[in-house]
Amino acid sequence: MALEPDKTSMTDRVANEHQDTAEGDSKPPPSVRPAAPGAPGAPASLDASAWLEVAFDALAAGGIDAVRIEPLARALGVTRGSFYWHFKDREALYKAMLKEWRERASYMIFNRLERSTESAGTRLERLLALPFSSPRSARGAAIELAVRLWSRRDKGAAKAVRHIDRVRLEYFTKLMQEHGVAASDAKQRAYLFYATLMAESLITVDRREQLVPEWTRVLLSP
Questions:
Q1: Domain that holds residue 76
Q2: Nearest partner of 145 among 125, 127, 131, 128, judged by Cα
Q3: At what angle do helices 208-220 and 183-200 cross, to 10 degrees?
Q4: Can you tell me the distance from the alpha carbon of 184 to that of 172, in angstroms, rounded to the nearest whole number?
Q5: What percent of the chain is modeled with pLDDT above 70?
Q6: Under a CB-based contact definition with an 8 Å cutoff, are residues 3 and 152 in contact?
Q7: DSSP per residue over 85-101, as a string?
Q8: Together in a domain, 84 and 99
Q9: Are 180 and 35 in contact (CB under 8 A)?
Q10: Which tens digit of pLDDT belongs to each residue from 71-91?
Q11: What distances in angstroms separate CA 214 from CA 137, 194, 201, 207, one per listed residue?
Q12: pLDDT tens readout for residues 148-174
């Protein structure tokens, strides 16, 4: 998927900033802004990870434009001021989301696979089944799509997506070689594998459970 540079016009930027300020999402009023995140007196029952989880829920459901402080606070049952104990502003939340997504989208999955004693082929098969293997995986696929759409108009998100694509392709190439694919072909096979994996979360097909074994055979034949 080609990534496009940030094409937000100056007019859009000014309008967005005005809207953020009007809704209170850009900066907290002095009365609710703490001296520093995590300072004494911060709410103990709600940490930054809770805000990240509800932000990812909003992202998956409505894209990055749905990730706004007021609706997130309502979803958590807290006041907007609680947000500022953990994040300076909405941009800080966005940066934290991208950092967390990078961890979840590659390293956490790969580390879990690498701890197993399964063959490279079995690990590749497990990856192919990942998009629909559980409700949690389906949520992850929805978040991934939303991040990629976000990346088409935000340089920070685009940088995160490029990083993840590079890391994944390197890992898939490594697994292909361990699976017995010649080094000269491993990178191309890894790209086809990755393209199929991404398409699985986007394309709806009938009798998917019958097709997966055939996809697996074609993609993983040494």
A1: 32-88
A2: 131
A3: 170
A4: 14
A5: 78
A6: yes
A7: GT-SSHHHHHHHHHHHH
A8: no
A9: no
A10: 999 999 999 999 999 999 999
A11: 22, 16, 17, 12
A12: 999 999 999 999 999 999 999 999 999
Angle, helix 48-62 to helix 69-76, in steps of 10 degrees: 110
Same domain, 148 and 191: yes
Q: Which of 88, 105, 124 marks a domain boundary?
A: 88
137 — pLDDT class (breaks 50, 70, 90): confident
pTM value surpassing 0.70:
yes
Amino acid at 62: G
Check if the beta carbon of residue 205 is closer than 8 Å to that of residue 222: no
Residue that is written with structure tokens 């696979």 in the block: 113
CATH number for the domain that contains residue 110: 1.10.357
122 in the same domain as 216: yes
Overall number of domains in the chain: 2
Residue 13 has pLDDT above 60, yes or no: no
133 in any annotated domain: yes
Could you tell me which residue, 200 or 208, shows the higher pLDDT?
200
Do residues 176 and 125 make contact, with C-beta atoms less than 8 angstroms apart? Answer: no
